[in-house]
Here is the input.
Amino acid sequence: MDDVHSPNISTPSGPLRDHAGTPKFRHQAIAVVMSVDAHDGLRVLLHRRHRAPFSGGLALVSGPVDVKETIDEALLRHLDNAGVHRDMFEHFEQVETRSDVDRDPYDRTIATVYLVLLPAAQAQKLGEDTTAYRWVPIKDEQITNLAFDHSEIVQNTVERLRAKITYSNISFALAPEEFTILDLNVIYRHVLGFPIDTTNLGRVLSRRGLLVETGEKRKPHGGGRPARVYRFVSRELSITDPSAMFRPAGTSIVQPG
Here is the structure.
């Protein structure tokens, strides 16, 4: 396997220009596909490259924008090729644009980065449908040594998700249709990277008007009293509390003054 830091370029690179001298750069869509696993925590979908540059290196789902498609259309096409079909996820959003001159040793390439979130059940289906892509926990050392600038992209996207889960309802995109507060706590704990008090979490999300009870109760896997089952009031992104942030269990969840 080639060293990820040795691109192994066999063809010259350089920007293409039209007859008038106007640059014609390549543009690609990059998908940071994430899901939460109860044991592995927050994970990202990767595949191993089999061609230069960065042959043998792990990389995110990505690919070029075709002449007659939008960036969103290109994203969905490359996701579909990776086995991530449109009916498997409810939310995706643009995170950033990458334009460093040397980010792609092969040729000058502009990239638009997207965050794509999958519930655990859909993520499990993906593992059954494809062998080319695999889930890697963000805490795995391999994440720091991805092809191109993908390690930095993952880091930036995780920071974006961690911020957004505190002031919006974006956790709906990682959660099943129905859940207990303890189930939801697993998602928040793994995304934020620290434990959250379950009672406080339920109280805050209910006060924000994000949750509604289904009227059912569910026994915890480890035993104990049956817990109330909830669902999100809306499964579309909304900003609920732009000044709030979560803190580890044992401290307060900060609300706007």
Summary: The domain at 26-167 is CATH 3.90.79.10 (Nucleoside Triphosphate Pyrophosphohydrolase).
